[in-house]
Amino acid sequence: MRKRVRSVRDSAEMTKRVVVVLTMLVACMSGPMVLGQDRAPPGAVPVTAELEPTIRSLLHAIEILSDYSAPAALPSVFRLPQSLLEAKVCEEPCSVTAAYLPREGVYLAENLDPERDPQDSAVLLHELVHYLQQGHPKFAHMSSCQREKTKEQEAYAIQNAYLAMIGSGKRAVFYDGEFDCPDEQTAGSR
Ligand SMILES: [Zn+2]
To answer: Which domain holds residue 25?
Structure first.
C-alpha cells in the first residue's frame, strides 16, 4: 500500500517535471520573438520599474547634454551576473559591465549600483545614449563600422559631459582600436 502511494506520487512528480521541461522548451523556442517589455532572458532580472526614477533622471540629463529627446517609453533594463553578461556580448571573457542590445534593452552587471554610485549611473547613462541612438537618421548614411564607431564616440562624450556636470573628476576612456574602419573616401577605389 505504501509503495503504491509512493508510485502515484512519483508519477505526479514526473508529470510535473515534464510540464516544467516543456515550458522551458517553449520559452527557448519562442525566445527573442516574445521578448517584449521586461520579458527577461535566462539569468536576467528586470529592473526597469525599480530603477525608473534613475533612468528618467539620466534621460533628462542626456537631453540637457545633447540634441536627443527622450521618448516617454523606457527601454527594458535587466540586471544579470557578470559571467552571463560576458557570455552574451563578448566572444571571450571580457570586462564589459553594461550593454545595450537593440530589441532587448539595457543589461547591467549585477555589481553595478546606478542609484548610488555616480560612476555606475554614468555607465547606465552611456547605454541609454545607445538606446536613443538606435534608428536615428543621423547615422543612416554611414557604413556599419563607421556608424558603430561614431555612436561609441558620442556615447563616451555624453558620458564624460555627465561626469563633469555632476562634479566627478573621473572620465571614461574610449579605445577606438577595435573600430578599424576603412577610410570612407578611399574604400571604393580599393
Ligand atoms: Zn558604448
So the answer is: 2-30
For residues 152 and 157, give the distance between their C-alpha atoms in angstroms, rounded to a whole number: 8
Structural domain tally of the chain? 2
Tell me how far the alpha carbon of residue 43 lies from the centroid of ligand 1, in angstroms: 22
- Based on the domain organization, do 93 and 139 belong to the same domain? yes
Distance of CA 128 from the midpoint of ligand 1 (Å): 9
Considering the domain architecture, whether residues 22 and 50 belong to the same structural domain is answered as no
Q: Does residue 87 lie within any of the structural domains?
A: yes
CA of 85 to the centre of ligand 1 (A): 14
d(CA 105, CA 35): 10
Tens of pLDDT along the chain (190 residues) come to 454 555 545 555 544 454 444 444 334 333 343 344 567 888 999 999 999 999 999 999 999 999 999 999 999 999 999 999 999 999 888 889 999 999 999 999 999 999 999 999 999 999 999 999 999 999 999 999 999 999 999 999 999 999 999 999 999 999 888 788 887 554 444 4
For residue 38, being part of any structural domain is answered with: no
Q: How far apart are CA 99 and CA 81, in angstroms?
A: 13
pTM for the complete prediction?
0.76
Taking the centre of ligand 1 as the mean of its atom positions, its distance from the CA of residue 1, in whole angstroms, is 65
Evaluate whether residue 40 is within a structural domain.
Answer: no
Longest dimension (CA), the chain: 85
